[in-house]
Each structure stands twice: as C-alpha cells, then as structure tokens.
C-alpha cells in the first residue's frame, strides 16, 4: 500500500524560512555528511557541549561484541551543561523550568540562576547523606520541580539516578531499587493527579522494607498530609535544604564521557524489566542535538513535553535535551482531562507554549470530546507539534494538524526507544514533507535497515517491510543492561549479528519514508507505555487461584493497545466476576494500574505447541474477537483445546471445566 502524494504535507513556507534546517536539500546534505564521515559529524555535534577535557577518540563501537564507547578521554558534567554554563553566559534570569501544578491556580517559574542554586543545595544534601560518585539514587516523585532538581543534583555529583514512574507499585519499586542497589530514595508524602492523591510515601515504605541497600529516604512534602516516618532513615527534604550547614555552592564533578549518568528500567519480552544504562557524554550529545533539530529550538520558545520524567521521554525531552539547549521547559503535574478536557490548551495559552510534544493516546482521548474544547482556546502561540510513544493513526494525525495546530503547525512524529536515548527517526519540521502516520526519515547519523526473520537485509527501491534494525552506533545508544552485560548482548545484538535490533517491525515506502508497525516481540504498548507480557503473566499467577496465564494485546480505541489475559484457574476454583477483579488487582499490586488487564478470560487450557510454547497468534485473534478461521492449528500439542478456549471466550460455557 503506497501513500498517495496528496497525503504529503510540506513544511509551511513561513516555518521553513525561519527553521534551523529549512529545506529537504539541506537535510540530505547533513545526512550524507553524517554517514560518510560519522566521526567528523559527531565530533562537530559534541562541540555543542562544554567539556572540561576534550575527548581523544570519537567512537569505538562494535555491534558484534556490544562494546560501545563515545568521546573517550573526554570529561564533562551533565548538570553543568544544563544549568551552570547558561548562568555563566549571562542567562541566569531566563526561565528554565515553568511548572504547572495539577491545580490550575498553582504554578512556579524557576530561572536558570534559581535552578542552579536549588540544584546545588540539593546536591549538598545528597552529599551530607553519604551519596558519592557512582552511587545509585532512586527517585520516586510526582511531576514537581524537585523531580528535575534531584535528577540534576545527582548528575552534578556523579551519582547515578534511577527514576521510577510514580504510577508503579511497591513491588515494582522494590525490584528496581534492589536491582540497582540504590543507597538513597527520594520520594514525596503524596502525589496529586487529576485532583486525586497518590500515596507515594506509603508505597515507598512498603518497597523499602525489603531493600536493605537503602540507608536514607528523603521526603518532599507535596501535600503536607501526615505520613509515618522511620527514625534514623527518613528525613524531610525541605528541612534538610533549609539547614544552615547546607550551602549554595557545590562543584560539578568532572565525569568521564563513559561514566554512567542514569539507569532507567524498561520492559522486555522476557523476565523482569531491565535497567537500561546511559552514560554521560554520548547521551547528552544525542539529547541536545535531537532536541535542537527535531523541535527546531529557537530562543524564546516555550517548550512543553507532556510526558512524565519517569519515562525516557521525560529524561531526554523535559530535562536533559531542553536544558542543555537553554530552553524554557514546562513541567506539568496533572492530566489532560482535569479540571476539564481543555486543560492542555489552557496551559498552552496561559504559558504561551510554542512547541508542544505529546502522545497519540492523549490525543485520541481528547479527540473523543470533539473540536469545541480545543477551538475555545486560542493556541496562537503554538508553532510546532510533536508525537511520541506509539504509531499515530493517520486520522488522529490529521485532527492534531487541523484542529490543534490550525493547519499551520508542522507535526514531528518521533520514533525512538528508552534504549536509543534520543529520537532516531523523525521529520525535521522545516525540511521534511510529512505523511500522516509515518515517522518519515532517519535523523542525521542514523542508519536504519530492514531484515527478514532469517537476518537477510531487505533491499530495493519499492515498498519494503521487515524487522527494524540500525546498522551503526549513534552517541546516545544505551551502553549495557545494569548488572547484566550478557542480557544486553542477547537482547539487542544476538538475533541479527552486527546490527542493533529494535524489537519493532517497520515498512519503508517507495519514497524512503519509515512507517513503524509496532513491536514484533512480546512487548505491549499500552497508552504509549511499554509492558512485557511475561511480567503481566507472572503478576497474575501471584494470585493463589491462578495456575497459568497468557497475555496478549488487542487494538484499543484510546490506549492503542489493550491487555487481554487468558487465565487457567486451579482445580475447584469458581470463576466469577470477583475473581476477575482479583486478577486485575493482582497486576495492579505487582506492577501498577497501567498494566491491569482490560479483559480477563478464564479458560480450561492454552493453545501450546508440542514443545510447550504458547501459540500467541491464536490468542491474539481471539482477543480481537476472531473465533473462526484461526489459521493452522495442526502443530498444537492438543488442537482440540482451541474449541474449548473459543467456547470459554464466547461464553458458550459459563464455567469452563478446570484442569
Ligand atoms: C514505540 C518511548 C511508532 C515503538 C520513546 C518503540 C513508536 C517503543 C514511536 C519504545 C513512534 C515509540 N511511532 N512507534 N513515533 N515512538 N514507539 O522505550 O514500539 O517507552 O519500540 O520509548 O515505543 O518505547 P519506550
């Protein structure tokens, strides 16, 4: 299926005229240069940062061994690059962080100078509590300024931060703290989202009870609600910061380019989430370069990425990328639908946001409420829109373009991953004609390719499809899985030797445009959040009534993908609505609400091959409501099971016979 050319949306002339990269020819030039002379290209890009010592070698990367090093010999500090150097250059009075609270009456403006002071003081508090270079600090905070400040404070002293999204459960938090061996946890009494409180401290207490590595818990009072504290372990952040012994100065630790900057956990197709490790130099070059180019960063922009800092999008495009480029970055504590469905556009008008970056799932949810809530707000300040996290449906793209952007703002559909650290495939808004639903062309320095299941490159000029791989390293690629280098190699470099395998499938059309078709592994993308089927299955069987579970995704109008669970209960257990709820609650408890199944089917068995592998293809069909024509089932150990599963799913037997 090729895309008709009427679907090509060229960059508006007025936009292109002012853009950093203002024509397709200029993009092609940059791209050609980046692939013919990658070392020269990336060395030039690295100059955008302040290095206290210059690198001796640009890149030393080998995908056959998974050894990847950039800018070796160089020294820099990420916090200095995001904060201090801008103050030193005379921009101390510029707003660095614009904070918009959950409550529309609640906001805060933090200048670069103020940010420097608050980060330095915070870093001094961390040092006072024994945090040193290389130590891991876990951050479990809501979207309040302290989240960005604590991230930067860690970077300032060379501590490795591991931010855990505030929607994760106590068990998920515990697993992440234990895996990283974190010494200190930063949390809040409560978070506030959509007018509702989230009991972060209570969850943190439950997690930390099983984390002997944690010696200190620093607590921010966000709502002031009374929460229990543990003597000798807990301290109030505000009291610590106000202590007379805490000074405004804290030197930035010079870090080697390859020193770890952070760990961020993400789901894979097997096992527990893995700690994606990013290092200092390459990551910051990537985040800064892509933020500038893809969002056409201009002085005076008010830039808003609606993600949570608990995800990679927030790391790279709320904190590190924009601050490295001296942008004004907006941090939003709330949700798109509170106090009403016009909130995003109210915030845009209130803060005169010029660049807006969000996820298709939020747009789908808002689109349901029609155009009026959008049209009632001015949105005149907007000049560029972005999308991330999952494929954007062409009709949602068009709505975003026509209604939100008044048909005058380009849209950058940005494809990337926690592992890639920064955007790899996206239009340059002043240069690349867009096609609704396509992430368009690779950024300079990025060499995507398609391979078939046997690992042969799929080549040619026409329309192609296959597994999306990347041929060569870029600076912000992850360096390892924390504590498990073998898993790093096995996950990304083993299946297609010499290439980085993304886990995504893709098409490349005759114009060379990339269309991401979604994960080809057992990873789900629910509301733009990555969730491993194996994790959800393990969570379900923690319930004593459940013997076995298989989980698949199905198309969901708002979430993109919903979760459908097929569960075998133990002998003699009644399968009723209460048990269904209990299964969902088990997942909420083990992982968090974002992973709770939308549907639960109790089944008498699961379709398995003779070697015992669950044939998910059949379950995916059933989850989509297809019950006939389930394809070839002859390789199943027991083909008759399919009829029984179909009967259970379609409700033809109220209580399936238990195994
Ligand atoms: C998916 C989020 C289509 C993809 C930055 C990828 C996308 C996974 C897009 C990474 C996009 C992200 N179009 N699919 N523009 N952006 N994805 O690690 O499947 O949370 O592999 O990083 O999201 O999710 P992650």
Describe this structure as you would to a colleague:
With 659 residues, this protein is an alpha/beta fold. It is built from 20 helices and 30 strands. Strand 14 (260-266) and strand 15 form a beta hairpin. Helix 4 packs parallel to helix 11 and helix 10 (280-294) packs across helix 11 (312-324). The longest helix is centred in the first third of the chain and has 17 residues, at 112-128. The mean pLDDT is 96. Bound molecules: 5'-O-[(S)-ethoxy(hydroxy)phosphoryl]adenosine. 5'-O-[(S)-ethoxy(hydroxy)phosphoryl]adenosine is lined by residues 266, 311-313, 388-391, 413-418, 439, 502-504, 516, 518-519, 525, 530.
Concise overview:
With 659 residues, the protein is α/β, with parallel strands linked by helices.
Topology:
Elements: H1 13-18, H2 24-36, H3 38-46, E1 57-62, E2 67-72, E3 75-76, H4 78-91, E4 95-100, E5 107-111, H5 112-128, E6 136-140, H6 145-157, E7 160-163, H7 170-180, E8 184-188, E9 191-193, E10 196-198, H8 200-208, E11 216-220, E12 234-236, H9 237-242, E13 255-256, E14 260-266, E15 274-279, H10 280-294, E16 302-305, H11 312-324, E17 328-332, H12 343-351, E18 355-358, H13 360-367, H14 372-375, E19 384-388, H15 394-404, E20 411-414, E21 448-451, E22 464-470, E23 480-481, H16 485-492, E24 500-508, E25 514-519, E26 523-526, E27 529-532, H17 533-540, E28 546-556, E29 560-569, H18 577-590, E30 599-602, H19 616-623, H20 640-649
Parallel strand pairs: 4-17, 6-7, 6-8, 7-14, 8-11, 11-12, 16-17, 16-18, 18-19, 19-20, 29-30
Antiparallel strand pairs: 1-2, 3-13, 4-5, 9-10, 14-15, 15-23, 21-22, 22-24, 24-25, 26-27, 28-29
């Amino acid at each position: 299926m090729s895309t008709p050319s009427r679907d090509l949306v060229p960059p508006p002339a007025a936009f292109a005229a002012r853009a950093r990269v203002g024509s397709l020819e200029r993009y092609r030039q940059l791209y050609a240069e980046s692939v013919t002379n990658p070392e020269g290209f990336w060395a030039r890009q690295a100059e955008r940062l302040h290095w206290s010592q210059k690198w001796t070698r640009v890149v030393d990367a080998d995908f056959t061994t998974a050894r990847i090093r950039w800018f070796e010999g160089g020294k820099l500090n990420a916090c200095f690059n995001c904060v201090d150097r801008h103050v030193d250059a005379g921009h101390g009075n510029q707003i660095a962080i614009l904070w918009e609270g959950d409550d529309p009456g609640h906001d805060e403006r933090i200048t670069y100078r103020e940010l420097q002071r608050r980060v330095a003081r915070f870093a001094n508090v961390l040092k006072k509590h024994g945090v040193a270079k290389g130590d891991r600090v876990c951050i479990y905070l809501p979207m309040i300024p302290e989240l960005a400040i604590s991230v930067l404070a860690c970077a300032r002293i060379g501590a490795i931060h591991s931010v855990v999204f505030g929607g994760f459960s106590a068990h998920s938090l515990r697993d992440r703290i234990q895996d990283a061996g974190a010494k200190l946890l930063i949390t809040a009494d409560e978070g506030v989202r959509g007018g509702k409180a989230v009991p972060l401290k209570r969850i943190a207490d439950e997690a930390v009870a099983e984390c002997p590595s944690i010696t200190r818990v620093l607590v921010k009072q966000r709502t002031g609600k009374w929460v229990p504290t543990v003597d000798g372990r807990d301290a109030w952040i505000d009291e610590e910061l106000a202590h007379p012994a805490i000074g405004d100065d804290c030197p930035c630790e010079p870090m080697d380019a390859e020193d770890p900057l952070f760990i961020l956990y993400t789901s894979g197709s097997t096992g527990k989430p893995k700690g994606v490790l990013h290092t200092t130099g390459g990551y910051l070059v990537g985040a800064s370069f892509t933020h500038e180019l893809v969002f056409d960063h201009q002085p005076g922009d008010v830039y808003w990425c609606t993600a949570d800092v608990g995800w990679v999008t927030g790391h790279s495009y709320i904190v590190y990328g924009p601050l490295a480029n001296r942008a004004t970055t907006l941090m939003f504590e709330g949700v798109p639908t509170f106090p009403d469905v016009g909130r995003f556009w109210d915030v845009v008008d209130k803060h005169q946001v010029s660049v807006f970056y969000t996820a298709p799932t939020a747009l789908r949810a808002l689109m349901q409420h029609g155009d009026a809530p959008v049209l009632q707000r001015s949105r005149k300040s907007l000049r560029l829109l972005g999308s991330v996290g999952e494929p954007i449906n062409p009709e949602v793209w068009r709505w975003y373009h026509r209604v939100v952007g008044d048909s005058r703002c380009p849209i950058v559909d940005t494809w990337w991953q926690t592992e890639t650290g920064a955007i790899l495939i996206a239009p340059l808004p002043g240069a690349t004609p867009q096609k609704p639903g396509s992430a368009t062309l690779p950024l300079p320095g990025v060499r995507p390719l398609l391979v078939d299941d046997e690992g042969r490159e799929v080549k040619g000029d026409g329309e192609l499809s296959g597994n999306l791989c990347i041929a060569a390293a870029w600076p912000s690629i992850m360096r390892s899985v924390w504590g498990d280098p073998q898993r790093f190699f096995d996950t990304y470099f083993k299946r297609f030797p010499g290439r980085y395998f993304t886990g995504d499938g893709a098409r490349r059309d005759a114009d060379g445009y990339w269309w991401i078709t979604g994960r080809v592994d057992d990873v789900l993308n629910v509301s733009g959040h990555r969730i491993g089927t194996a994790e959800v299955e393990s969570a379900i069987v923690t319930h004593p009534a459940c013997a076995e579970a298989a989980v698949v995704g199905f198309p969901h109008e708002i979430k993109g993908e919903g979760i459908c669970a097929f569960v075998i209960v133990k002998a003699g257990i009644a399968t009723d609505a209460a048990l269904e709820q209990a299964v969902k609650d088990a997942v909420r408890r083990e992982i968090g609400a974002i992973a709770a199944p939308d549907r639960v089917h109790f089944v008498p068995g699961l379709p398995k091959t003779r070697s015992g592998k669950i044939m998910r293809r059949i379950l995916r069909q059933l989850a989509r409501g297809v019950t006939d024509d389930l394809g070839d089932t002859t390789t199943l150990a027991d083909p008759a099971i399919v009829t029984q599963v179909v009967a259970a799913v379609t409700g033809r037997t109220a209580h399936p016979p238990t195994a």
